[in-house]
Amino acid sequence: MVNIFNFSGGKTSAYMTIKYYKSGDHVIFCDTGREHPATYKFIDDFEKYEGIKVTRIKYYNEANPFPSLLKRKNYKTLPNMMKRFCTIELKIKTCKRYLKSIGIQEFNNFIGFRYDEGKRVSGGMSYYKKVHNIFPLFNDKITNAEIISFWQKQRYSLEIPHILGNCTLCFMKGKNAIINILSMYPELAKPWIEDENSCKPYTYINGFSIERLLNLSKMNLFSEVDLNKVNPAFSCSCSTT
């Protein structure tokens, strides 16, 4: 059975790959185009120092996956808590199309959910008979503390707070977390605001536009916030199929 490693560009999935990867396995990063620049550098460093190739794929090979997805939807909606079609289209289906193009239809799907993320594991079962989701970190009882300890000893690391992992302003992070992020990185708002402007009256978060959250971030509602201590409001399972 072919092994596929879901590489999110974060420390946990990188640790999982380093620990369990074997020659002949495939490591795939589905690029939504909305990652923090440091994430892309981390992937480059991972390949350099670990000698493991990461196959980077995008939605229909588009340079800007999010706007391209919205165009295909005729700008009639946006992904949100109730309809997470960004995950389905930009990650799950994009990955399956790529694998099918290289002759892989049944595979072991390695996902980096830790032992302290039991709820993500229980909600991460595969909907496809030929996709066999495997959670090696959970099975081996590896927690976040072990991941942190590992990366403190490496020659390279992902140099951003955990909350900035995955799509920078993902609605799953919640409006308060997004306000905190924008208070320090206001430049991240631009593409998300453009999305909402092209799909009016829809917003990523019900009742709050990204532009409004950007304005709120300028009001110092959360003074001297340590982004390393900010957690997402909701757990996501963007790697499961």
What layout of secondary structure does this protein have?
Elements (H helix, E strand, L loop, with lengths): L1 E5 L4 H10 L5 E5 L6 H14 L4 E3 L7 H8 L12 H17 L5 E4 L7 H5 L8 E4 L1 H4 L4 H9 L22 H10 L4 H10 L11 H8 L24
Parallel strand pairs: 1-2, 1-4, 2-3, 4-5
Characterization of the model:
By secondary structure, the protein is an alpha/beta fold. The protein folds into two domains: 151 residues, HUPs (Rossmann fold, 3-Layer(aba) Sandwich), CATH 3.40.50; 59 residues, no CATH class. It has ten helices and five strands. It has a five-stranded parallel β-sheet, with helices on both faces. β4, α5 and β5 form a beta-alpha-beta unit. α8 packs across α10. The mean pLDDT is 91.
The radius of gyration is: 18 Å
The number of helical segments is 10
- Name the helix and strand elements from N-terminus to C-terminus, one letter apiece: EHEHEHHEHEHHHHH
Residue share in helix: 25-40%
The overall number of domains is 2
Calculate the mean pLDDT score and round it.
91
Features of the shown structure:
alpha/beta; Rossmann fold; 241 residues; five-stranded parallel β-sheet; 39% helix
Quick summary:
The protein has 241 residues and is an alpha/beta fold. It folds into two domains: 151 residues, HUPs (Rossmann fold), CATH 3.40.50; 59 residues, no CATH class.
